[in-house]
Design goal:
This protein is an alpha+beta fold. The protein has a single domain (39-182), classed as Roll (SH3 type barrels). The chain is 29% helix and 34% strand. It has a ten-stranded antiparallel β-sheet. It is rod-shaped and about 100 Å long. The chain starts with a helix and ends in a 6-residue tail after the last strand. This is Fis family transcriptional regulator.
């Protein structure tokens, strides 16, 4: 009968409209959820993954993402480890699609200054990479002190921290800090 066909078409159109509305709602909810993520959430979703990082000075590093703090990350390269402030990164490649909100814990209250204080406490030799001109600058030595928005490094040229080995004490503002690299295979 013609009415059966008419009502069948109306039902199909009704269900198609409902499906489209549901898909639009799901897509909108996904957009709203993604809008709530911060960069650190995206990085937590890529922990352990091989990524490439391009720093603000144009240099590129590749390795596995080891840790993510409130405003920093640790990148494990083949030979060394990097502690990199998030503000020093221009862009990331190969993060994947995951994002993870932090669980309540130290990452929420563990800012860059705290991570750097840990390195200062350990008295490890490090290379502090600083944005200074096009190429930047590398200061080799030991982090002596860390303030709220700066660090002081005893520049030793890669030698052990002894008074006779210190050639200068450099104060580096966090805003110009590109990263801190382990001077050897020692881990952070």
């Amino acid at each position: 009968m013609r009415w059966d066909s008419l009502f069948g078409d109306m039902e199909a159109q009704f269900f198609a409209d409902r499906t489209l509305a549901r898909e639009a709602e799901v897509a909108e909810r996904a957009r709203v959820e993604v809008a709530q993520f911060e960069l650190a959430d995206r990085l937590r979703g890529a922990l352990g993954r091989e990524v490439s990082i391009t720093l603000n000075n144009g240099s590129k590093e590749a390795g596995s993402l080891g840790r993510v703090g409130a405003d920093w990350l640790v990148l494990n390269t083949a030979t060394r480890q990097w502690l990199i402030p998030l503000h020093s990164v221009s862009y990331f490649e190969n993060l994947g699609r995951l994002a993870r909100k932090p669980v309540n814990g130290p990452a929420l209250v563990f800012p860059l200054a705290s991570a750097l204080r840990g390195l200062a406490r350990e008295r490890q030799s490090v290379e502090v990479h600083v944005a200074a001109g096009a190429a930047g600058r590398v200061l080799s030595g030991v982090i002596d002190r860390v303030g709220k928005d700066f660090l002081e490094i005893a520049v030793t040229g890669g030698e052990a921290r002894r008074a006779t080995a210190v050639t200068a004490v450099a104060t580096v503002a966090f805003r110009s800090l590109l990263g801190v690299r382990s001077a050897s295979r020692r881990e952070y």
